[in-house]
Amino acid sequence: MKGKDTKPHIGIFGRRNNGKSSLINALANQEIAIVSDHAGTTTDPVKKSMEIPGIGPVILVDTAGIDDEGELGKKRVAATLNTLRTIDFAILVVADNIFGAHEHDLVAKFRDKEIPFLVVHNKSDLAAADETLQQRVLEQTGEKVLGFSALNRSGVGDLIRLIRDRMPESAYRSRSLLGDLLSYGDVVLLITPIDIEAPEGRMILPQVQAIRDILDNDCIAVVLKEREADAFIRKMNPLPKLVITDSQVFLKADASIPKEIPLTSFSIMLARHKGDFDTYVKGTPAIGTLKDGDKVLILESCTHHVSCDDIGRMKIPRWLTQYTGKKLHFEVVTGMSDLPADIRDYALVVQCGGCVLTRKQVFGRIRPAIEAGVPVTNYGMAIAWVHGIFHRAVAPFTGHAVSQEDYL
User: Fold this and answer.
1) Cβ distance 83 to 11 under 8 Å?
2) What one-character-per-residue DSSP string does 130-153 give?
């Protein structure tokens, strides 16, 4: 399941043949999911896009039945449960007044991952939710059951209203990347190398996101390559309120930008916006304690063609090896692929900025490492650490600059 969209993700869960795909079609008022009387038609999680008034664009995730059977069925159930890492809101679809162990286990998983949810009784045109079911669900989940019929679209309006009322605002209302650091008319200088990893004719997503956020805050974005930074900064008037650089040219930017001007990177900006910033700050010093034979896990959220000097697969491993002087072993997991079975095998986890993920997806991605006590850092923070400028790179977001030694 690739985390390729930053819109809110709504997961549709339930047993086979409870009408999950039909519910999606009823919500969207069009045939966007395959429907069949044969149980198990949906075999893998599938994303569908639609618009919900009051929220905006959302992604509906159609999942396989949680009661699937056999060896292949177990794999489908595992894939369904795996989507919980990416879900902002869940709809549990029941039918025929059945609410048993499968549903109870799902609710427990929703709560464990802090996913708000609704319980919908589908096929109410055939058999309405009876009083026994209503009482059982209320006792076990604290939720009322919403009657629904995908066949005649009965209950669609109520379901959309409940989704709108219960969806956390944080899932669809973006926080500003930089708004709390800027005032009207401030200038922000963006240093954006154009190298082999830059898509031809385009800028990378974090750079575009930064430019838009700067403009949204009624400020001025100045964009240039690292080669022009020295000359331009000498004649800038007024001086920039903040400089954001690509992490790969941190050293060059640190040398070019006067110390009194705050400097950070696009990756660290994203770490504060949608990652666990405090955990990254605490985890980064573990770089200095790495030993021969330690394993480092690199989580790269996007999938792309690997260049000869790829930052996640090539540059970060090289910089960490050079900094520590140790023989380290690196593994890379891309997209939202499964993490290794035992995260405790790793001495450090390095998460990318997560520009293509939601905040919920980033937190879900690094949660196993945090719970296992494995130090977690971020691309930008790790690069700043090995170049000796960690203190300067995080200072714009911590509100104070301290020496790197204070973190040891």
Assistant:
1) yes
2) PHHHHHHHHHHHS-PEEE-BTTTT
Q: Which residue has the tokens 């989507």?
A: 83
The candidate with the shortest Cα–Cα distance to 302, out of 97, 1, 2, is 2
Consecutive H or E run containing 150: none
pTM of the model: 0.72
363 close to 276: Cβ distance less than 8 angstroms:
yes
Domains belonging to the chain, first-starting first, are 9-171 (3.40.50.300), 179-269 (3.40.50.11420), 276-404 (3.40.50.11410)
Say what the pLDDT of residue 34 is.
44
Calpha distance 182→203 (Å, rounded) = 23
204: nearest Cα among 193, 219, 188, 216:
193
- Read off the amino acid at residue 311: I
What is the band of 303 on the pLDDT scale with cuts at 50, 70, 90?
Answer: low
Q: What is the dihedral of CA 225, 226, 232, 238, to 10 degrees?
A: 90
Percent of the chain with pLDDT over 70: 88
CA 74: distance to chain centroid?
26
Judge whether 365 and 336 are in contact, CB under 8 Å: yes
DSSP characters over 314-336 = IIHHHHHHHHH-S--EEEEEETT
Instruction: Judge if the upstream peptide bond of residue 57 is cis by omega within 30 degrees of 0.
Output: no
Neighbour-count burial of 193, counting CB atoms closer than 10 A to its CB (0-12 exposed, 13-18 middle, 19+ buried)? middle
The pLDDT score that the predictor gives to residue 197 is 60
* 36 burial type by CB count under 10 A (0-12 exposed, 13-18 middle, 19+ buried): exposed
DSSP 113: T
Looking at residue 339, its pLDDT comes to 84
CB 162 within 8 A of CB 146: yes
- Tell me what pLDDT residue 335 has: 81
- Per-residue pLDDT for 63 more than 60? yes
If pLDDT is split at 50, 70 and 90, which confidence band does 1 have?
very low
Determine the Cα–Cα distance for residues 174 and 170; give it in Å rounded to an integer: 7
The model's pLDDT over 40-59, given as tens digits with 9 standing for 90+, comes to 444 557 888 888 888 888 99
Q: Residue 381's closest CA among 277, 257, 249, 251?
A: 277
In whole angstroms, give the CA distance from residue 91 to residue 89.
Answer: 7
Q: Are strands 56-62 and 145-147 parallel, antiparallel or unpaired?
A: unpaired
Round to whole Å and give the CA distance between 266 and 201: 20
Going by the DSSP 8-state scheme, the letter that residue 348 receives in this structure is E
